[in-house]
Specification:
The chain contains 9 helices and 4 strands, in the order H-H-H-H-E-H-E-H-H-H-H-E-E. By secondary structure, it is α+β, with helices and mostly antiparallel strands. The protein is extended and about 80 Å long.
Length: about 240
């Protein structure tokens, strides 16, 4: 009887081990298959498993293979904040004055000391603003396919933009609110307006001309002031 029980236990462990091997192999095959589809150009199979890719690779293991074929940066982007009172928010247009550049001071401090943490402080605002506007690195391929006439790609691109703005709007609101608290406008501020200022470089032929750089302001939106955010103290001085 004892031998029979031992034999049955060993047989169960063998079956469980084999089942674990099969499940693990299947998970690896599924993962690498989804990863290959994730980085592949737009195709019908990628459309069919778009939801599964979004839940797995895109959510937890995003990849950017453009490092092997980089696209040069064409502009410098700085995040601007305007603390709004209730009267400002009721106006039909945003005020032209009172905008603060919260990116350039951090870059300047980082350039003076490359071992400082100013680069890390500037990354959240830059990443949140870019992702809010463009949808992130995953949206570009869908935008190109949409521009080429694919309605399915347009639907995917719109969903990516909606998700990006829903997740990054609270981050932008916290960034703007933290700045307004830093400069002492907590009591009067009810909303924060934010925009991105793009500065385009000179042509190489005009590099020594001394002319001002061409700039463009792109609105991000108006967000409710968050009074619970902690004041970082970075902009106090």
């Amino acid at each position: 009887m004892i031998l029979k029980n031992l034999s049955g236990s060993a047989r169960f462990r063998s079956i469980a081990y084999r089942a674990l091997q099969i499940v693990s192999l299947g998970a690896l095959i599924l993962h690498f298959g989804l990863t290959a589809l994730y980085v592949a150009p737009i195709n019908p199979m990628k459309f069919s498993v778009r939801g599964l890719i979004a839940m797995t690779v895109e959510s937890h293991l995003p990849q950017d293979w453009r490092v092997f074929a980089p696209v040069p940066v064409t502009s410098d982007e700085a995040v601007l904040v305007r603390c709004l009172t209730l009267a400002d928010h009721a106006m039909p247009a945003l005020p032209r004055d009172g905008w603060y550049d919260i990116s350039t001071p951090l870059w300047q401090r980082y350039q003076k000391n490359r071992f400082s943490g100013y680069d890390r402080l500037s990354r959240p605002q830059t990443y949140a603003a870019r992702t809010y506007l463009t949808g992130g690195m995953d949206a570009d391929v869908w935008y190109q396919a949409c521009y080429a006439g694919s309605q399915g790609a347009c639907d995917v691109y719109n969903s990516i933009i909606f998700s990006a703005r829903s997740s990054n709007a609270p981050i932008l609101a916290r960034l703007g609110s933290a700045f307004c608290k830093d400069i002492g406008l907590t009591d009067s501020t009810t909303h924060v307006a934010m925009r991105v200022r793009r500065s385009y470089p000179y042509p190489w032929s005009a590099r020594n001309s001394g002319l001002p750089r061409t700039t463009e302001d792109v609105p991000l939106g108006i967000f409710p002031f968050n009074p619970t955010v902690q004041s970082p103290g970075v902009f106090t001085r």
